[in-house]
Amino acid sequence: MKVISKEEGVGALWKGLLPRLTRMAPGQAITWSVVMRVTSIFENQELEISENKIKM
């Protein structure tokens, strides 16, 4: 990091951050939306317990 900041300047350490963030943000938003939706589905789903019991 010292070499990069010395040879290319401190701005070189941040080069590429904006393109990376613009790629990551939509993917994270989609992932978050899917996780929240699936969680909501499982929380609202009523599980029916069968009266049939397994005999051993």
* Main beta-sheet strand count, sense and barrel state: none
Rounded Rg: 25 Å
Number of strands: 0
Task: Enumerate the spans where pLDDT stays under 50 for 5 or more consecutive residues.
Answer: none
What is the helical fraction, as a range of percent?
A: 55-70%
The global form is rod-shaped
Secondary structure category = mainly alpha
**Which percent range describes the beta-strand content?**
under 5%
Protein name: Mitochondrial Carrier (MC) protein
Family: Belongs to the mitochondrial carrier (TC 2.A.29) family.
Subcellular location: Membrane
Solcar repeats: 1-41
Write the layout of secondary structure elements.
Layout: H1 2-8, H2 17-44
Describe the structure.
This protein has helices spanning 2-8, 17-44. The protein is mainly α and 56 residues long. The relative contact order is 0.07. The mean pLDDT is 81.
Question: What are the key terms here?
Answer:
rod-shaped, mainly alpha, single chain, membrane, 56 residues
Task: Describe this structure in a few short sentences.
This protein has about 55 residues and is mainly alpha-helical. The protein has helices spanning about 1-10, 15-45.
